[in-house]
Amino acid sequence: MPKNRLRLGINVDHVATVRNARGGALPDPVRAAHLAIAAGADGITAHLREDRRHIRDADMERLASELSKPLNFEMAATEEMIGLAEKLKPHAACLVPEKREERTTEGGLDVVGQAAALAPAIARLKAAGCRVSLFIEPDEAPIAMAAELGAPVVELHTGTWCHAVADGHADKAEAEFQRLAKGAAFAASLGLEVHAGHGLDYDTARKLAAVPAFVEFNIGHFLVGEAIFVGLETTIALMRQAMDEGRAAG
Ligand SMILES: CC(=O)[C@@H](O)[C@H](O)COP(=O)(O)O
Ligand SMILES: NCC(=O)COP(=O)(O)O
């Protein structure tokens, strides 16, 4: 295994989205998490939204107690969520912005504007033993503030780039890719561990893997969708291959 191999975290939120469409117990996101680990995932990500639209408290409790690989608990920095993380003690806690009316996580956390509120949240999560990560835009100001706030990890939001690629806006896509590459290098230069996620597919993950500063990708929606056609094991193997190819080419 190459020393600089990228870690692949699998986000199981949208297995729960399908389950919740019918209100029963199936498909079970925890079963998907076990399967993802058996298929080579390096960790599992799950986002317990305040409105519980996909992952629910009972899912998070089972993920925290059952998994053999690290759990990355994505959450808004609310009292309720920080309290839950203190109770469940997941390996990692990733603070993300959240709006009830949004369809998905639309941008990065406003770490500059919310620094005063984030500082105690980060301190409490660290005291609970969680590796704290901040989900932010790939720009200097939020990255520098993340370092100042003592977060050891940043996850750079790849959504704007992935949308530009999907929409065929080549110039915007190239500019967004350069923004991510520059942001990742800057974050690494400050001693931060650099992750990426949101909207990644095989092609975008392959291209981004060539940027050496990244050490982990968290991917969910695309893989859960692909699993309908080729199965979860195959889609994870194909994503692993794409990331390894990209890294080797970098
Ligand atoms: C923060 C983030 O990017 C993830 O939470 C992911 O997008 C899945 O959750 P949603 O689709 O509910 O935003
Ligand atoms: N933090 C990003 C994540 O966990 C997965 O995002 P997506 O692939 O579901 O868009």
TrEMBL record:
Pfam families xref list: PdxJ (PF03740)
Family recorded in the similarity comment: Belongs to the PNP synthase family.
PANTHER family: PYRIDOXINE 5'-PHOSPHATE SYNTHASE
UniProt site (Transition state stabilizer): 155
EC number: 2.6.99.2
Family annotation (InterPro entries): Aldolase_TIM, PyrdxlP_synth_PdxJ, Pyridoxine-5'_phos_synth
Organism whose genome encodes this protein: Bosea rubneri
GO molecular function, one term: pyridoxine 5'-phosphate synthase activity
Top class in the EC scheme: transferase
Gene name linked to the record: pdxJ
Name by which UniProt lists this protein: Pyridoxine 5'-phosphate synthase
Pathway(s): Cofactor biosynthesis; pyridoxine 5'-phosphate biosynthesis; pyridoxine 5'-phosphate from D-erythrose 4-phosphate: step 5/5
Membrane-spanning parts: none
Catalytic residues as annotated in Swiss-Prot or TrEMBL: 47 (proton acceptor), 74 (proton acceptor), 198 (proton donor)
Known catalytic reactions: 3-amino-2-oxopropyl phosphate + 1-deoxy-D-xylulose 5-phosphate = pyridoxine 5'-phosphate + phosphate + 2 H2O + H(+)
Location within or outside the cell: Cytoplasm
Residues bound to 3-amino-2-oxopropyl phosphate: 11, 22, 199, 220-221
